[in-house]
Amino acid sequence: MNPNPLTEADLDRLEELLEAEIFGEEAMRLDEAQALICAVVSSPEPIQPGVWLPEVLGAGADKGDNALVGETVELLMRLNNDIAKSLLADETMSPLLYPVDENSEEYDFAAWADAYVYGAGLGGDWYELAGKHADDLSELLEPMFMLNGMLKEDAEKNGERWFLPAEEARLMADIQENLPVIVQTLYNFWRAKRGGVTVQHEEPKSGRNDPCPCGSGKKFKQCCGRPDKLN
Length: 231
Description:
Blueprint: H1 8-18, H2 30-42, H3 49-57, H4 67-88, H5 109-120, H6 126-130, H7 134-147, H8 150-157, H9 165-177, H10 179-193
């Protein structure tokens, strides 16, 4: 595998490949792939490529003998290595963000945060692994749940008071601006604790948009994959 960091041309090529027909529109966008890998690299438990690559590529990950799939996997592995080196060196990573839609000047921070939260679930139950520091972890993760809308959704569902529009907008803008710092802080939290008890997972994980295996009829990310059940 090419050991060199990804160039802008490499990122453009990866973005193009993730949209290739062979993945049947199941592959993540480049921004989502970056976010998931950030969580994977930060995980308290090692997550092998055989676990996270299918989450990024969908069913296309099984077509490893295809040249396009092989090229995509190599670029994703290089992206993984770049992110790992950047976070280890405590460098400020730059989130890859897409506009909310073609005509919007707003960036889709919600999709980035949603992919990060899902990637966090691939590495065991973060809260359980945090032990006595679970409250600290909860505070560190809260901005991600603000960005992907899950905190607001839970508050509205439970009839709890939410921020006034102006206050919410100010808070969201602050979180968006500090996203690189938030990602680095979460990495540093687990780096300090890494090497704890390994949590084994016997059953395959549900995809974030798959029906929840509990039989509720909801999507996994809206049921057992919610932030309070990262497992």
